[in-house]
Amino acid sequence: MPQLTAVHVSAAQASEGPEVDAREVEAPLRRPMDPWLFAAVFALSALGLVMVYSASTWLGFHQHHDWGYFLWRQAAFLGVGFVLMLAVSRVDYRLLRRFAPHLMFIAMAMLVGVLFVGQEINGARRWVRFGSFGLQPSELAKITLAVFLASMLARQGERVRKFRTGFLPVTIVAAITMLLVLFEKDLGTTLLMGALTLVMLFVAGTRASYVVAAVMLAAPLIWYQILGVDYRRGRLEEFLAGDSYQVQQGLIAIGSGGTWGLGLGNGKQKLGFLPENHTDFVLATVGEELGFVGIAAVMILLGVVVWRGIAIARVAEDRFGTYLAAGLSALFGLQALVNMGVVLEVIPAKGITLPFLSYGGSSMLAGMGAIGILLSISRSPDAWRWSDQRSRNRVKPLRPGKREPEGPRKRNVRDRKSVV
Questions:
Q1: Residue 15 has pLDDT above 80, yes or no
Q2: I want to staple 262 with a disulfide (CB 3.0 to 4.6 A). Which of 266, 382, 383, 391 is the partner?
Q3: Average model confidence (pLDDT) for the chain?
């Protein structure tokens, strides 16, 4: 595929007339993947591997008679995740747009399947066991939902401002997916999917009144799901009373760390006092052993991930890339805020992991795959033959000696992102 040069752009602008903006004619050329995003994810993953080992040694020895049990497993997940991230970053992201319906169908089938064949833990069926590995379909469904919504919104274009043809179809698909996750008794992930849907609709340009109406309609349903389920109501009561054992032990760990922490490996709360200190409450272990400085470093690195994701969305060369990058960035940011809010006792307890730091194979692989998608969008790769071509609108220069045909001129750029 020929690349645009300044001469080609000038010629294209002259042939199209003054009505065509240079930003629409000039298609971005192939670029290297975003170095800031890659560096931030690498640093978070490395820190997470160290903290998982430090937090899980006591638990690994008492449960599996191996001090490094969780370290070796997390290292394996991280290794596979990095390979997946690099592989996805080399794939044309427009391929996802073409196969978005197929991916969404597979994700929904997995969400239905886990309700029948999933392993029940603490009264919830969220995992499918494959030997010693447990797959959590809802982690993959979050990424798939972002891909499918980006595809729908890019296809709708300006129709997204209409309720029946734009807003309603998107919310129906999202609501079905959220309902399947709610059947797994996973309210936290359900709310994340709902927030992801509203963010992507807002970015696509839907009416703010529709978003506000959706929030007002969902609020009583969420309140019923909290008060109508015993263990959720118990968590809310513990939060309001301030006597949640797990949260209190996490705050003790953070308070013990002070500014600089007790030192790597010197934490005491991991000795059976703080449950899930290597998964949902790994931030408490960071605060105990690395102090406020460690927590601040984690926040800064996660902020870099969200910042670069938004920057990638701004420079994406099509609507699909813009919506997908914005959705994935929002997903990382919201998930991190919920996890930190629980650990710092800002919101009631929810089983949401901290991206790239918490122990877990499904969350690590899903997160690395999403980062690979963002890196692919940042590269602006050439379109593959099997990719969705609706977003590829490179200007083709006229052959030497060939005149432009007479008649009404048509814009050569289709399905471009809106300039906000």
A1: no
A2: 266
A3: 85
Structure tokens at 318: 């099509």
Give the orientation angle of helix 282-315 with respect to helix 35-64, to 10 degrees: 150
Cα 24 from chain centroid (whole Å):
28
Q: Which two three-digit tokens encode residue 45?
A: 């993953």
Alpha carbons 103 and 369: distance in angstroms, whole number: 14
Rounded to an integer, what distance in angstroms lies between the CA atom of residue 287 and that of residue 262?
9
253 in Cβ contact with 286 (< 8 Å):
no
Alpha helix (H) residue ranges in 184-229: 187-204, 208-227
The two tokens of residue 62 are 């008492």
> pLDDT tens across 169-226, in order?
999 999 999 999 999 989 999 999 999 999 999 999 999 999 999 999 999 999 999 9
Per-residue model confidence as pLDDT tens digits over 106-127? 999 999 999 998 887 766 778 8
Which residue type sits at 33? M
Encoding tokens for residue 242?
A: 């301030």
243 token code pair? 């006597």
Q: Return the DSSP state at 228.
A: T
